[in-house]
Amino acid sequence: MPKNQLRPDGQPRDKAGASVVVWLLLGLVVLFGGLYVAAHYVAGDKVPRNTTVSGVRIGGHPQGEAAQRLQAGLADRVNRSIATTIDAQQVAIDPARAGLAVDYDASVAEAGGERSWDPVRLWNYFTGGDDFQAEVEVDETAYAAQLAELDEQHGAAPRDGAVAFDGADIRTTKARAGKALDPSDTLAALQDAYLADSPDVVALEMSRVTPDIDASDVQQALDGFASPAVAAPVTLGFEGSEVKVFPENYTAALSLVPTDGELVPTLDGAVLTEVVGSRVTSGAPVDASVALVNGRPQVVPAKPGVTFDPAELEAGFLDAVARPQGERRIDLTATVAKPDFTTKEARALKVREEVSSFTTYFPYAEYRNTNIGRAAEIVDGTLLEPGETFSMNDIVGERTEANGFTKGYIISDGILVQDLGGGVSQMATTLFNAMFFAGLEDVEHKPHSFYIDRYPVGREATVAWGAVDLRFRNDTPYGVLVDTAFTNSTPSSSGAVTVTMYSTKYWDVTTTTGERHNITKPRTRRIDDLTCHPNEGFGGFDIDVVRYFTPVNGNPETRDDEVFSTTYTPSDTVICTNPDAVDE
Known about the structure:
Blueprint: H1 13-43, E1 52-53, E2 56-57, H2 63-79, E3 82-86, E4 89-93, E5 100-102, H3 104-110, H4 119-127, E6 131-132, E7 136-138, H5 140-154, E8 162-166, E9 169-173, E10 178-181, H6 183-194, E11 202-204, E12 206-209, H7 215-229, E13 234-238, E14 241-245, H8 247-250, E15 254-259, E16 262-267, H9 269-279, E17 281-282, E18 289-293, E19 296-300, E20 305-308, H10 310-321, E21 329-332, E22 334-337, H11 343-348, E23 353-362, H12 366-379, E24 382-384, E25 389-391, H13 392-396, E26 407-412, E27 415-420, H14 425-438, E28 441-444, E29 471-473, E30 480-487, E31 495-503, E32 507-513, E33 517-520, E34 524-527, E35 540-551, E36 562-568, E37 573-576
Parallel strand pairs: 1-6, 3-11, 13-21, 17-20, 34-37
Antiparallel strand pairs: 1-2, 3-4, 5-7, 8-9, 10-12, 13-14, 15-16, 18-19, 20-22, 23-31, 24-30, 25-29, 26-27, 28-29, 30-31, 32-35, 33-35, 35-36
């Protein structure tokens, strides 16, 4: 190598030049890298310098500060009402109630307010900036509520056509179009006016809203179902017997329900089963009975029991009512059970007329109203067949709170004490006298231990559950219907209970009452119990009552006079010695 191509240090000159270039390039990289890093830190998360959002200058400021400047700059526009008209009527809409709001952070971020190493981002910060629109967010729930309120105030809800049944008649409702704001168009118009510098009045247009069920749907329902449904009865076949059900009854189970733009026939199976059950007895048969109708005894016919599958009835009924007359029939798989007591047997009892009636009265006491009224309610409607014995305890049952009774006064050991069912003996006495004058056989009765002056002397009875009963037998060839009537007592009026017996008169009964004899004097008893009830006593005596029988209506029997002898013990005078005794 020539000597002049060597550097003083002995290195070749071309190698030395290359090193210089490398060092120079490294210096430039370090220089520009430093400038780039400095530019990044200068730009930070600031918005490009010339940026505006909805006319508000926010350029050159960090993101948080830019968001605050944007919020301040838009405050007047955000808080003002949006002027609109709806059908030429001026309406001011609060944007907040309409669900409109500005997302300030998102608006700044969209305008470039974010930290980044992207050279384009850095270039835009120093040299760029543009005009942006603020990011508007919509609360869909609030907007829907505002739109519904506007529709309610300025619009009109559409009315569906309808078809309904009123017995055998058809009632129709005409369809009517409505009007409402279009949700999409209304929102777009409100958003455009929301942040505008000088917004025009927004004209919101109502759109026509068609009903789901229109006139053609109504006519189709009339022709296809409703009119045929009321044209004629439907015949139900129950294993050889037929029952007709009529439109005025079964249409209560029919309805036409709006479904997917049509009126669809719908059946209430429970109502239909009830309607059919009123024409037949579904399940167990019902015995014949005798009841008072308009004050006169009448036979209530028996009903055979028909067992059928309600699902089978429901499955074919909608189709049957839409068929032409003559084809409206459903044959059901059914079984028929006969009643134990037939209409013929009920009529044979010949319960035709009143044969006796007796009324007793009682002074005011709420326990009497409760207990006598409850006993009368239970006894009412009792039917005695020939040879059958009436038992008051069996029919009325135990006098408990669960059975509807309350505490009242009864006679025990010659004095008044409280117990459940007190007062029921008033009902026993009334029954006894009605039985007495109907000429029925006295099987068991027990007078009160001492005489109570509101009862007929020698013709009265008491009862006590499990110990004393009132029983009498229907020894006539006819049935006997027992009817009761009850009137509450009040503080200013007496109560009353009446027992009336209906049959065919078999005996004409009269009676005489003898003189009181064997008079006995009361004692005076001093009782220290807290529940002592004071009483002014009176004497006891014996009495004889005679019942006389005269046969009537072809009665071939004769009957001896019947003597009822009663001994009443004295009603003791009771003095309560305990100062804390409570006279309940």
